[in-house]
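Changelog note: in this version the structure field was regenerated for every chain. One regenerated record is shown below for reference.
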Amino acid sequence: MELISLVGLRDTPLSIDEVTAAVADPKAGGTTFFVGTVRDHDHERGVRALSYSAHPSAEDRMRRVMEKVVADTTVAGRPLLRVAALHRVGDLRVGDIAVAVAAAAAHRDEAFDACRRLIDDIKTEVPIWKHQDFTDGSSEWVGAS
């Protein structure tokens, strides 16, 4: 059984059902999810829309992040059962799903810990950049330096 059951960048709407199905396992006693959506503000500025761009290596980097989380995550010697992650690229509107990650494990503690680490590490280690358009007509890049 592949521990990384789903990894990808998509330019189409993300499906929570797809992520849920990817981590389903009869041995799982705990399954956790994080779903990041486009909000209507950032630092007290109204957001109209945004666009995500990714480096060509982004999907491979996401897989490496996931491999590290799987390798590092055990509780009382019990490994994770499955992890999944999808990230949107392209143009998104307020309310759209930008990222979805999930972790399934025998117990909830390792599922919660792994899911939190997955989203945190994807945000810091995977070359995906956000361009925000604000309601005042201005715009900015986030994560591009």
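Spot check on this record: The mean pLDDT is 92. Residues 4-139 form a domain with the Aldehyde Oxidoreductase; domain 3 fold (CATH 3.90.1170.40).
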